[in-house]
Automatic annotation (TrEMBL):
Signal in keyword set: yes
PANTHER family assigned to the protein according to its UniProt record, in alphabetical order: BETA-FRUCTOFURANOSIDASE, INSOLUBLE ISOENZYME CWINV1-RELATED
Glycosyl hydrolase family 32 C-terminal domain location: 371-564
Name the UniProt record assigns to this protein: Beta-fructofuranosidase
GO function term, MF aspect, one: hydrolase activity, hydrolyzing O-glycosyl compounds
Amino acid sequence: MSNLFLWLLCLSSLILGHGVLELEASHHVSIHLQSLSSAATSPNQPYRTAYHFQPPKNWINGPLIYKGIYHLFYQYNPHGAVWGNIVWAHSTSTDLVNWTPHDPTIYPSQPSDVDGCWSGSATILPDGKPVILYTGINPMNQQVQNQAVPKNLSDPFLLEWVKSPYNPLMAPTPMNMINASSFRDPTTAWLGPDRRWRTIIGSKRNRRGMAILYRSRDFTHWIKAKHPLHSSKDTGMWECPDFYPVSTGTQNGLDTSTIGLGVKHVIKVSLDDTKHEYYTIGTYNHVKDIYIPDKGSVDNDSGLRYDYGKYYASKTFFDSAKDRRILLGWINESTNATIDIMKGWSGIHAIPRKIWLHKLGKQLVQWPIVEIEKLRSDQVDLPSTLLKGGSVLEVSGVTATQADVDVTFDIKNFEKAEVLDPSWTNPQVLCSRKGASVKGGLGPFGLLVLASKDLEEYTAVFFRIFKRQNKFVVLMCSDQSRSSLNLDYDKTTYGAFLDVDPVDEKLSLRSLIDHSIVESFGGEGKACISARVYPTLTLNKGAHLYAFNNGTEGVRISQLSAWSMKKAHIN
Ligand SMILES: *[C@@H]1O[C@H](CO)[C@@H](O)[C@H](O)[C@H]1NC(C)=O
Ligand SMILES: *[C@@H]1O[C@H](CO)[C@@H](O)[C@H](O)[C@H]1NC(C)=O
Ligand SMILES: *[C@@H]1O[C@H](CO)[C@@H](O)[C@H](O)[C@H]1NC(C)=O
Ligand SMILES: *[C@@H]1O[C@H](CO)[C@@H](O)[C@H](O)[C@H]1NC(C)=O
Ligand SMILES: *[C@@H]1O[C@H](CO)[C@@H](O)[C@H](O)[C@H]1NC(C)=O
Ligand SMILES: *[C@@H]1O[C@H](CO)[C@@H](O)[C@H](O)[C@H]1NC(C)=O
């Protein structure tokens, strides 16, 4: 993929609550705009997901809620597989699970966006009006920031948007030192006590990634601040930045303008160089207008991530209807473009996640929105069971290609935990070296999903417990190496360290399985790993679901519930 193409990935989903409207994005090349409602149902689509959002064809974008209706905007090129003239397609939902398509809303139409309407965010002004800020590409191929407002505020579907005659509102100039090729993805704006709005825009200077800060009194005239809100050396271009407050005492979400006691702030960036996202937790000094990560934060690609698998161009929004902050992210295919064109679609959205600050304040926690549980059926429960070393236990009774499974392990005996070599600091590398088929002491134990009967194919999501001095270290892995007999796709293994003390706490794992995606949540949402897989043997004979333990020490499953998942209505 060319660089140009990659940039486009970070495009647009728009979410809006009563207080705040937001927008994230993911670009793409598409085939026919008209195929919006036709193509998805074609037979022989074994890898098409059943309850993850995706347009009928092509690449995707994100969601929004206004007057109780969530909106999702995604992008199409009406002129076919050649990139250009991107428009915003649009779906709405009342539950973030089932989606109805509408006509596309925003088209390139002004000099300030004639070569593309890229990612942005939405903000609800105090009078209740939503406003979108989005990146446009002008004929000089410069990235500039534009504004659009709904044409008819009485229309809860927000079908039509009108662009500001002042566009572009923010642009690179020789004076402001902004790199015109590295200036995109404005965030939801926040209002300071001085009654000025702020927004940040992803950028870089040389290798320093940065969040350029702009301020405005009227949301139309924006002035660049002298310093960025935040920057970090050697991180490269920051795409889709996100900046929001989190509550220190509760799991509730906060409106983006909230400051004061009991509030910390988060900055998340999507790194163009590595296609990873990382975040820090810190303090927003609204007088100096700077963000300072907490002491000890790792402010680069080695930092904390929402998801340690595939996950990019994400955005959060405050869902004021349910007092929660919701995270949406985009997950691309692991197959190549030839295959994607053949199947006629590419890219899906992760299940929306509620996101909040962990009570100890050191990391965020994420959990699939509760609405997704409406799709559960045919519950299967396993009684408390000892999984002996080297054993595999089938969980039958659920449709294993389309399932939700939640398991909790209880470990009593830690003697066999392997010693963690201090040089093993990268969990992904550790998971790659110590995959499911490498026997250990305490672990690997976990789930084998999308598995064929004879275990020729499976995706293994598991834990392994190590000892370091007198503490235990929990590794969580998603091992795709045996996910398919098909060799032609990316089967990278992913890993994360899970900040759970297995002596005091039980170890939980939940996986959402949907044909070609496995989204896993360890430690009740302390670490998430999303993987794309394309099994071949499970297509006709059916997939199986197993719990397994390939360590020498036995582990107890204290609880396991699994459900078949119904198909959601998606476009
Ligand atoms: C605005 O939307 C409302 C609600 O859908 C509709 O009744 C009304 O006719 C619309 N007004 C215009 C000018 O289109
Ligand atoms: C501006 O950003 C582009 C895209 O990353 C890069 O190729 C170029 O070198 C940058 N220019 C400067 C002056 O840093
Ligand atoms: C990230 O920053 C840490 C210091 O916090 C440093 O030790 C590490 O080398 C950096 N990693 C990368 C990938 O730049
Ligand atoms: C998309 O998928 C490819 C292949 O797995 C991967 O190399 C790339 O990093 C992904 N891009 C993003 C933005 O996740
Ligand atoms: C367990 O380990 C054995 C020996 O390494 C291996 O042959 C087997 O495939 C492993 N099981 C799983 C589920 O990976
Ligand atoms: C993509 O994968 C297919 C199927 O494995 C292979 O035949 C083709 O050469 C690949 N195309 C590219 C562009 O790598």
